[in-house]
Amino acid sequence: MTPKEIQIRYEEFASPAEMSAEDRELVEAAIDAMKGAYAPYSHFHVGAAVRLSNGEIVKGANQENAAFPSGLCAERTALFSAGAAWPDKAMKSIAVAGGVYGRLADAPATPCGACRQVMAQYQTKGGGPMSVIMAGAKRIWKFPDVDSILPFIFDSI
Ligand code: THU
């Protein structure tokens, strides 16, 4: 038996003002995208913004449905929208923000496992790292790639 350990490296920012202009713009886009949330059941409004290799930003917001599993998270709304609109462009970065009744939560918005898996595959498709930014009102986390938030990614098919 050989004990193993995984280290996760990420950066914490106190506010978007500390970030690069590009990342700041993406965080602001994710916060703005929260306005598009349709969350009559959870009242938890989530926004996501994907940065493409051509500089374009594609936004998404969570969309709920009375048949609960039919709804979709903000991240996948943005990722699938970006994938459909710009199939030849790599996704370089994604920012996520969320909060109850549209008020940005203090803590960073941490994507669910299914969204991480979808991020992972678009990262593979793009052929380079997709950074993941989780925004909150009190602190923002930036991870250099999807591997950092989804170790042992499944992408073997
Ligand atoms: N939600 C997201 O949009 N992204 C996440 O990463 C976690 C959860 C949405 C799904 C649902 O509409 C609401 O937040 C409450 O779970």
Commentary on this structure:
With 157 residues, the protein is α+β, with helices and mostly antiparallel strands. The protein has one domain: Cytidine Deaminase, domain 2, CATH 3.40.140. The protein has helices at 21-33, 74-85, 113-126, and strands spanning 11-13, 44-52, 57-61, 91-100, 131-135, 140-143. Bound molecules: tetrahydrodeoxyuridine.
What is the gist of this entry?
The chain has about 160 residues and is an alpha+beta fold. Helix content is about 25%, strand content about 25%.
Features:
157 residues, alpha+beta, Cytidine Deaminase, domain 2, six-stranded mixed β-sheet, 3 helices, 6 strands, binds tetrahydrodeoxyuridine
Q: Topology as H/E string?
A: EHEEHEHEE
Q: What is the CATH fold-level name?
A: Cytidine Deaminase, domain 2
Overall average pLDDT = 97
Form type = globular
List the uncertain runs. Answer: none
Rg over C-alpha atoms, rounded to the nearest angstrom? 15 Å
**Number of helices, where a helix is a run of at least 4 consecutive DSSP H or I residues:** 3
Q: Would you identify the CATH H-level superfamily?
A: Cytidine Deaminase, domain 2
Structure ligands: tetrahydrodeoxyuridine
Architecture, according to CATH? Answer: 3-Layer(aba) Sandwich
Sheet with most strands: strand arrangement:
1-6-5-4-2-3
Tally of DSSP β-strands? 6
In total, the number of domains comes to 1
How helix-rich are the residues, as a percent range?
10-25%
Secondary structural class: alpha+beta
Major β-sheet, in short?
6 strands, mixed
Task: Please report the distance between the alpha carbons of the first and last residues.
Answer: 29 Å
CATH class reads: Alpha Beta
Provide the β-strand percentage band. Answer: 15-25%
